[in-house]
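[Help] Beginner question about ligand-bound structures

Sorry if this is basic. My supervisor gave me a protein sequence and a SMILES string for zinc ion and asked me to "get the holo structure". I don't really know what that means in practice or what format the answer should be in. Inputs are pasted below exactly as I got them.
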Amino acid sequence: MLENQVLLLLSHCNILTNTAVFQNNSTGNKPVEALDSSVSTKSQSKKATGSSNKKGKSPKVANESPKKQTVHTMGKIKSLEQRPLKKLYPSSGKSVVVVESVTKAKVIQGYLGDMYEVLPSYGHVRDLAGRSGSVRPDDDFSMVWEVPSAAWTHLKSIKVALGGAENLILASDPDREGEAIAWHIIEMLLQQDALHKDLTVARVVFHEITESSIKSALDAPREIDVNLVHAYLARRALDYLIGFNISPLLWRKLPGCQSAGRVQSAALALICDREMEIDEFKPQEYWTVEVEFNRKQGSSMNSKFFPSYLTHFDSKKLNQFSISSHTEAKAIEQEINSLEFKVIGSKRNKMRKNPPTPYITSTLQQDAANKLHFSAMYTMKLAQRLYEGVQLSDGKAAGLITYMRTDGLHVSDEAAKDIRSLVAERYGSNLASDGVRKYFKKVKNAQEAHEAIRPTDIQRLPSMLAGVLDEDSLKLYTLIWSRTMACQMEPATIDQIQVDIGNANESVVFRSTCSGVEFFGYQAVYKDVEAKAIRVDENEGNERGEVFKALSSLKAGDPLYLSLLELEQHHTLPPSRYSEGALVKKLEELGIGRPSTYAITMKVLQDRNYVTVKNRVLYPEFRGRMVSAFLSHHFSEVTDYSFTADMETELDNVSAGLTEWKGLLKDYWTRFSMYCNRVSNVHIHQVEKMLEKKFGDFLFSFLPDKSRTCPSCMEGTLIFKVSRFGSGYFIGCDQHPKCKYIAKMLDGDDDEEVASQDKTFEEPKALGLSPGSSEKILLKNGPYGFYLQLGEDRKGYLPKRASVSHIKDVGSITLEDALELLRYPVTLGNHPNDDHPVVLKLAKNGFSIRHRRTIAPVPKMGNVPFKLMETLGPKIRIKKRRQNPYMYREQRCSDIVTLHDTPLKEKEFSLLV
Ligand SMILES: [Zn+2]
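Answer (accepted):
No worries, everyone starts somewhere. Holo just means with the ligand present. The predicted complex, written as structure tokens, is below.
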């Protein structure tokens, strides 16, 4: 909403000039759009600088403090040698610490005392504007940022706190996103001229929220890492460009479908490709022969049975499909029943099973999904709380785990030592690993190398947190605690026995195997999935132990008697669909996405109705499959796994300072825009044909005898069609419009709101004719919602349009309403100062007035109807009233309306004249 935000332009290699822009235009809480979509960055910067000079305010270029200069030039000078910053604890003067969240702020404030003021930024203070044109490839990839209204308040608190402060310490989360938050805050404070020249600006990172680690982090301050910021910018720009360019294309070719996003598209492709494999899967029949042997002839209650399976028949080794029919199986049964058996030999094997690696984001999400049935999103939410700090029973607050977005396996030496000594204390020294176990992973960028996820204090046992944490948080903490302990423990030893049993000439051989845990090792505290298969429940465990004992007592030549023979029919199973945990694992294996993106990827796919989750299994919806097929057909790069993985590597290279980010964007954009142009010329018929070819079996499976002849006209053929109106898909007759037969409607949009709107009218809806031009007035639906259009689409004609996406019941819009809405923008007159037109425009919530690059919202006029507003427009006068300078009065109506609850600059007053 225009009233609530200020739109800011950033050309971040040109921060000096932009600072001047902001001095001119930005005035604290007041909403101003500082960007004209038709004006390029450079000319805007020049103009703005010029006008500020005219007003006698020189741009703040001359009085650069050294500190500011490093901040300013960071976009340009990467190799600038970083001066060591002074230690920030204890503080010699007042320090302002900025973190993301209130919780984190409270906990840290408790550690640091009065010399520090810890404030939350509530996440990002600005973000890319969510509309087209926010990333501009033709303007050196400049980006338009938007500041949500709440962020102004948070920035103001920081600004106020900085008065008299010696240090500004930016301590947002220790990753690219956190680095970007810190950078945005500095940018915004610079633009508001809130960084005085004696202020030291420093970045510190807290990998864990505990008193000692926070104090030592304050003694290792650094500058903002420009490479991390660039990697963030490149990712944002890339994702934005793909989203905002694919979405309108998708909308036109596949109504109702939005772009899934860059990483999400690759994830969707994985899910849809698997579904294709399942569709195409042909089950194969095979048979198994399973028997039980007994040491004595005939069966008795006390005798031991050895379940065995057939491995050789007729002196041939069998594979899964060797016995493919009942007839074959029966023949084998007959033969076996006539034979006598003895033990051929046995083999014992000891296997060492190493403890698992410490948790990183992906493995934590997988394990929590498998063992606790948590979604990736939920796991991250709980982990964030554990990291940020929890009020403990002794009244103190502390972060319970290290930072949860990490792909580093490293555990600090000190922590590893503590873990080992607790293992020895609780489980005995024979379970503690010989020395400290170290885990490594090749990481490209040391700056991004984090520790693995572990408890901040291993002595804080899960049992001590019962009652402090809610049930699910405690479960997650327990999982993290156990895995961390396991990592410093001895391997488990597994004893396996294998006995081969055969007839006299050994042409028929069976095998019997059993395994048991000889030494639990780490499995005393942490049970991985494989361990679970070995250590079954108590009863079965005993039985298994007995089988193990019985098998190990067998010697070669011992006679054995067949007590049971079972022939079993099987069919091969299709590959299974992904669970969330399995998909995260796959994404990680392929190098798609990063610790920060797995959870959000899952969420987006579900929010867009591309994927549904049933019993923790991900099922692609037909809509998701269409989008994925469309993208892989026309934008192969977007859905290609290896391309997406390469792009992630490129982004890692940017963050390591090895790749220049704008060059990367340029390369990509050149190719991508070519695809876009090509696809915009693809006819919807081609899309229909492509989808029909790909999903034909699925689409026409409902037809009783697979005949696609139209049952209505008996001439046409049934084909897959995309509705030209609204967002539906159906199977209909190709003789349309001669034959209007529709065999089946396919679910186009599950969105109730859209569905209910679709019922009331067919779109585009002709509302009537424009009295002046006899042009049709149409109500249409587009990627950004419903809009009105004057005249039909035709070549060389740019129809006038007005968005009605904010109107809930678009079906009720009348011709009169439409004519009214289509009148805007209306020129109210020329500005007395520069003779440029002052224009009244429709805005999302009412009206706005625009003069050159400045847009000011028109306050709500109470009951004044739309029409009256316009006639009043030129007559609006601003009166600077003594009692309340922020009111203006409309003379004729004598309506007094509050313009703003915040001060306006003279400029805005004069603008409204
Ligand atoms: Zn027909």
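A couple of things worth pointing out: Residues 2-224 form a domain with the Rossmann fold fold (CATH 3.40.50.140). The pocket of zinc ion is lined by residues 710, 712-713, 716, 733, 735, 739, 741 (CB under 6 Å). Feel free to follow up in the thread.
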